[in-house]
Design a protein that fits this description.
The complex is a heterodimer.
Chain A (H helix, E strand, L loop, with lengths): L8 H20 L3 E2 L5 E2 L11 E4 L9 E4 L4 H9 L5 E8 L11 E10 L3 H16 L5 E4 H9 L6 H13 L12 H13 L9 E7 L15 E9 L2 E8 L4 H17 L9 H10 L3 E7 H9 L16
Parallel strand pairs in A: 1-5, 7-8
Antiparallel strand pairs in A: 2-4, 3-4, 5-6, 6-11, 8-9, 9-10, 10-11
Helix pairs in contact in A: 2-8, 4-6, 5-6, 7-8
Chain B lengths: L2 E3 L8 E4 L2 E11 L7 E8 L5 E7 L3 E3 L3 E11 L4 E4 L6 E4 L1 H4 L11 E7 L2 E6 L3 E9 L13 E5 L4 E4 L8 E5 L4 E6 L2
Antiparallel strand pairs in B: 1-6, 2-3, 3-4, 4-5, 7-8, 7-10, 8-9, 10-11, 12-13, 12-15, 13-14, 15-16
The chains are: A alpha+beta, B mainly beta.
Chain lengths: 321, 189
């Protein structure tokens, strides 16, 4: 019986120190720590995420099945709409069907929102946090388009570019489905995960920004260029560490994105996800202008300790939990 | 037609790819925080023996390969086919040259071999790990050499050539490891 932790005692100490340093970083900046539910009435609509559900019994509950949160995003936005000011949270989140060397179904996320910031100001702050926690070099910024042009020579924002990307991928013989794949985003994800990500953040932390509008998630669309979403990701040593947005605040667009997610779910033969009406109502009441980011703390600790398995930084990963 | 979802992928699972049955060697999930997940797998093609990397969209289904392994005793070869028999049911199966391939040089009558069947037809024959075969030809060695240093080539009754110690002589039976083709010991008749 394997009852012992998979992380070393040294890693557990490093985790405690990391959490303390993060808390003092935000305390110095007057960002409020908050705590939102893991068990909630609604899950995500995101077609690529899967909530774990739990059954609850009890008098006065409005439903029997609840959703373990994949991120504290919706609840934190409701706090922002309620006038909380800038907030952060160190949250346990749970995602179904994610197990691997860099994935544990339950992991720790640092998520924060800065009022009055756009994505560039937030990237500056993330840079400061990374330098203080990891002692790394200052980051560099590369647009999504530049990253694709550098590695594949294909422009992700034109129909012609997508077709040349398809040929580029077909040459790499990953599978017969690639030549007939109808969804351009799937081709972009394939190139990104297999060929671009491994090259990112090798000498200094690298932000990729200006994602395609089709991958906007909850970021607002660029007013000058509707093909581009104001979304960014941070990579260090080829590992995706954080994902952030200049947040969408328009309730109508939010409702449309939920509906769009659900139509993708239908096409994929997945069940329709209940849309979080409380988030839409909060946006209707008014979400202040803000930028927000979610950062994987376990992966950050892996980088700090120079280990490659998430189990090296977790006391009890899922196979020992 | 049977199929497997990518979340059933694991080492040893048999799937169809490029029209050929394949065995999964490694399976790795590639999952961006936002966006499509993939299963990146390393597979061995069971007919050509090639090892290749493929990527599947997570959640997709992949055609299963009807592959099974059975243990059969080797009977004889008629020059075109190699015949095997199930020792319990006495059912016989013939494997062609492509299926038997390199195993021919290790086939000993009555030895139990592992046959890989695809849709009921043999595609591969694996001989036992150890076989005992008579030497038909080897140079006379030095009598006094019992250390087995150096060694010399010896041709076995099946045509296989193995390196044996100098003291081993024509007509003797030797035990050979079929996985690396190396001499193990002499066998007392």
């Amino acid at each position: 019986m394997n009852w012992q932790p998979s992380a070393s005692l040294q890693a557990l100490h490093a985790r405690a120190e990391l959490l303390a340093n993060i808390r003092s970083f935000f305390a110095e900046r007057d960002v409020l720590e908050v705590d939102t539910p893991i068990v909630a009435a609604r899950g995500v609509t995101d077609p690529h995420l899967s909530n774990v559900t739990v059954k609850l019994c009890g008098d006065g509950l409005s439903q029997s099945e609840y959703f373990l949160q994949t991120s504290p995003e919706y609840a934190m936005k409701r706090l922002l709409a309620a006038g909380s000011g800038s907030i952060y949270q160190i949250a346990k989140v749970i995602r179904n069907d994610e197990v691997g060397p860099q994935h544990n179904p339950e992991f720790t996320m640092l998520e924060w929102y800065r009022l009055g910031f756009d994505e560039y100001q937030l990237m500056d702050e993330i840079d400061q946090l990374m330098c203080s926690l990891l002692g790394c070099k200052a980051s560099k910024r590369v647009t999504y388009q530049e990253a694709f042009l550098t590695v594949t020579g294909c422009d992700p924002f034109t129909a012609q570019g997508i077709e040349s990307l398809r040929s580029w991928l077909v040459e790499r013989d990953l599978g017969d489905w690639v030549k007939d794949e109808p969804d351009p985003d799937t081709l972009l994800y394939l190139a990104m995960t297999h060929y671009i990500e491994p090259t990112l953040g090798q000498t200094e932390p690298t932000f990729i920004y200006n994602f395609p509008a089709s991958q906007s998630a909850l970021a607002r669309i660029h007013s000058d260029d509707p093909r581009v979403a104001r979304r960014f990701e941070l990579y260090i040593d080829g590992v995706e560490l954080a994902n952030g947005f200049y947040e969408l605040t328009d309730a109508m667009q939010q409702a449309q994105r939920f509906a769009a997610d659900n139509s993708i779910r239908m096409k994929q033969g997945k069940p329709r996800a209940l849309e979080d009406e409380r988030l839409v109502a909060a946006l209707q009441a008014g979400l202040p202008d803000c930028a927000g980011v979610a950062l994987g703390l376990d992966r950050l600790l892996m980088l700090k300790l120079g280990v490659s398995q998430i189990s090296d930084v977790l006391a009890f990963p899922i196979d020992r939990a | 037609m049977a199929s497997y979802s990518t979340n059933e992928f694991k080492g040893g699972l048999k799937i169809m790819q490029d029209g050929e049955p394949c065995s999964i060697l490694e399976n790795e999930m590639v999952k961006p925080g936002k966006g499509q997940a993939f299963n990146r797998v390393k597979i061995r093609k069971l007919i050509s023996g090639k090892v290749v990397e493929k990527t599947f969209k997570s959640g997709e289904s992949v055609e299963a390969a009807d592959v099974q392994e059975i243990e059969l005793a080797y009977l004889y070869s008629d020059g075109e086919f190699w015949h095997f028999m199930n020792n319990e049911t006495f059912e016989q199966i013939a494997a062609d040259e492509a299926a038997v391939s390199d195993a021919t040089k290790w086939l000993v009558e009555q030895d139990v071999c592992t046959l890989t069947l695809w849709d009921g037809k043999p595609i591969n024959v694996t001989p036992p790990n150890f076989v005992e075969l008579e030497i038909t030809e080897t140079d006379p060695g030095l009598k006094g050499d019992t250390q087995g240093t150096g060694g010399k080539p010896a041709t076995l009754v099946t045509g296989a050539v193995v390196r044996v110690p100098l003291f081993v002589q024509t007509g003797e039976v030797v035990k050979v490891d079929t996985r690396n083709g190396e001499y193990v010991s002499r066998v007392q008749k």
